[in-house]
Amino acid sequence: MRRIIIASAAILIAFTTILNAQTVIELKQPESNKVIIKIMFRAGSAFDGKGSEGITFTTAHLMEEGGTTGMTSSQIKDKIYPWAASYFVTVDKEVTVFTFEVPTVFLNDFYPIMKGLILAPSFSLEDFERIKANQQNYVDQVIRSSSDEEYSKKALEHFLFQGGSYQHPVQGKSKTVKDFTLENVKACYKENFCKENMTIGIAGNYTPEFLSQLKKDMRTLQPDVEPKAFTLVKGAAPKGIQVEVIAKENALGSAIFAGFPMALTRKSDDFAALMVANSFLGEHRKSYSLLYRKIREQRSMNYGDYTYIEWYDNGGSNMLPRPGFPRTQNYFSIWLRPVQTAKGLKGQYPELSGIKVGHAHFALRMAIRELDKMIKDGMSEQDFELTRTFLRSYIKLYTQTPEKQLGFLLDSKFYGRKDYIKEMDVLLAKLSVADVNAAIRKYWQTQDMYVSIITDISEVEELGKSLEQNLPSPMSYSNSLKEVLGKEILAEDEQVSKYPLNIKFVTMFNTKDTFR
Question: Model-level pTM?
Answer without folding.
Answer: 0.94
